[in-house]
Write a structure and sequence with these properties.
Blueprint lengths: L3 E2 L10 H4 L4 E2 L1 H33 L10 H31 L5 H35 L3 H28 L21
Antiparallel strand pairs: 1-2
Helix pairs in contact: 2-3, 2-4, 3-4, 4-5
Length: about 190
């Protein structure tokens, strides 16, 4: 298989000027690079999830846990389940890679790992909001807790989703030649 510009499809029917703009790599090289980048991203997310999940598991063994209201206990159980689901989704790409290694399925592995990572980030958002809700309810005992959690939820949404989507919108579509940035990471490849 020959080298293909990262910003084009396998058909190579785009003009030569566009073909020269992107990184030239084979589908396998691209999958290897995207896998390495995904692993770096997962290391950051997994560390945060592990710390948060450890905190959540320790809460139930604290003396004050018995004093929690029924609503707060329900929030706690939901939060622990969300934390478990988050950990599963963010660790799943490693399992996929290990089970599929040597089967010449790297591009498909990267695609599924990317989808699981996005799912994991969505679950992490829910876990963080649920954790904040539990902590704020215990700390404040009033409606201010909901307002603070709502404000932080908006901030998480902005940082994790809105700002990246805004950057995509402002950057234009690299495939059509409008905008700066890395054309090979525009979401048109296996991770998109």
């Amino acid at each position: 298989m020959g080298r293909i510009p990262a910003g084009t499809g396998d058909n190579g029917d785009e003009g030569d000027s566009k073909a020269r703009r992107g990184r030239e790599e084979t589908q396998e090289e691209r999958a290897d690079r995207q896998w390495t980048e995904l692993l770096q991203e997962l290391r950051v997310a997994q560390t945060g999830v592990q710390i948060l999940f450890g905190f959540l598991l320790a809460v139930v063994f604290q003396p004050r846990f018995a004093d929690l209201s029924s609503a707060d206990r329900t929030i706690y159980v939901i939060t622990v389940m969300l934390g478990s689901a988050t950990a599963a989704a963010l660790i799943a790409p490693v399992s996929h890679h290990r089970l599929l290694t040597g089967r010449r399925m790297k591009p498909q592995t990267v695609t599924w790992a990317s989808r699981l990572t996005k799912l994991g980030l969505g679950l992490l958002f829910c876990t963080m909001c649920s954790t904040l809700l539990l902590i704020m309810r215990v700390a404040l005992h009033n409606v201010l807790a909901l307002w603070l959690v709502g404000a932080m939820a908006l901030w998480f949404l902005a940082c994790w989703f809105i700002f990246p989507l805004w950057a995509i919108a402002r950057g234009g579509n690299p495939k059509s030649g409008g905008g700066a940035g890395s054309p090979d990471d525009s979401g048109s490849g296996p991770t998109g």
